[in-house]
């Protein structure tokens, strides 16, 4: 049967689930779970989406992802391809790893959002030793929600859901703990089934626009780094690596540019090199303080220029 078209909306919040093919552990070791979250953080740096909750089990994982103007398919296809490639190499295997496409459902109401978060955070009760204490499971965001640990992943924006349980942090955590514990697993499962995907989550969220001009990106990066624009087009020069890497990240993030589009813009460069530059750019943004907020600075400058 032909695949049905995935219903998408760049302004939506999604329940995303990934699952391995039958009888194969998607995450054989704890370090595989850490790697998947780390790679998700890599794509979050590029595309600026938000993660409201997650839980990674051995053969599947659940996420609540706010696309924030990005294409959810582009995010998940890139993430799963990257993970599967590394997984197959490390575990000396070949072939498919994930069961068909990832599943996604648009979260259409606050009630569904809260019910979904409870369902995701209750997943660990299926594991021996966590039946009555899912908050102790390390590969779930529940511990962060309850203030039991800090977010070591750099992924979470738990405040978006937690503020629905009260303005006082401690009271909100207490209310959320009660909410998760009293929810019936079978009832939750029925409510979050992947069926109708024809709705959109509406709220007061601001959505990141991604229709900027690549030429403006090049001008901005040249100004930020103090390197002349001509250096964007010089191949195999160590001095312009950061320049080109940052430009690639911003073009992928804010201009909806694919690797092949960036090849045309920069010229004399392969898609493989563009991917490598993107990896370098993300590392630069994450490690160098002067570039940590470079995406937001670019957006603010463009809005200022347009006003």
Describe this structure in words.
The chain has 307 residues and is α+β, with helices and mostly antiparallel strands. The protein folds into two domains: 13-191, Transposase IS200-like (Alpha-Beta Plaits); 214-306, Chromosomal Replication Initiator Protein Dnaa, Chain: A (Orthogonal Bundle). Helix content is 47%, strand content 8%. The chain contains twelve helices and four strands, in the order βαββαβαααααααααα. It has a four-stranded antiparallel sheet. β2 and β3 (60-66) form a beta hairpin. α1 packs antiparallel against α2 (72-90), α8 packs antiparallel against α9 and α10 crosses α11. The protein is globular. It starts with 12 loop residues before the first strand and ends with a helix. Mean pLDDT is 86; it is low at 194-204.
């Amino acid at each position: 049967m032909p695949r049905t078209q995935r219903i998408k909306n760049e302004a939506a919040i999604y329940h995303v689930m990934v699952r391995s093919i039958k009888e194969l552990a998607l995450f054989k070791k704890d370090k595989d779970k850490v790697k998947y979250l780390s790679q998700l953080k890599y794509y979050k740096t590029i595309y600026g989406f938000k993660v409201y909750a997650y839980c990674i089990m051995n053969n599947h994982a659940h996420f609540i992802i706010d696309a924030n103007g990005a294409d959810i398919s582009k995010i998940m296809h890139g993430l799963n391809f990257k993970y599967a490639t590394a997984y197959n190499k490390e575990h000396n295997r070949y072939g498919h790893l994930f069961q068909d496409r990832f599943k996604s459902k648009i979260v259409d109401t606050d009630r569904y959002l809260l019910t979904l978060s409870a369902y995701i955070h209750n997943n660990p009760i299926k594991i021996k030793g966590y039946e009555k204490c899912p908050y102790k499971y390390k590969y779930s965001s529940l511990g962060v929600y309850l203030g039991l640990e800090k977010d070591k992943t750099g992924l979470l924006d738990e405040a978006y859901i937690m503020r629905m349980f009260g303005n006082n942090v401690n009271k909100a955590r207490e209310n959320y703990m009660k909410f998760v514990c009293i929810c019936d697993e079978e009832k939750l499962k029925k409510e979050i089934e992947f069926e109708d995907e024809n709705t959109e989550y509406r709220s007061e969220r601001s959505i990141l626009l991604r229709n900027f001009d690549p030429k403006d990106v090049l001008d901005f990066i040249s100004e930020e780094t103090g390197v002349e624009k001509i250096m964007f087009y010089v191949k195999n020069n160590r001095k312009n690596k950061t320049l080109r890497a940052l430009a690639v990240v911003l073009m992928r993030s804010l201009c909806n540019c694919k690797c092949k589009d960036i090849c045309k813009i920069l010229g004399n460069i392969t898609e493989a090199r563009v991917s490598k530059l993107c990896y370098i750019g993300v590392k630069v943004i994450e490690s160098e303080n002067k570039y940590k907020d470079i995406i937001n600075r670019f957006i603010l400058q463009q809005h200022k220029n347009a006003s």
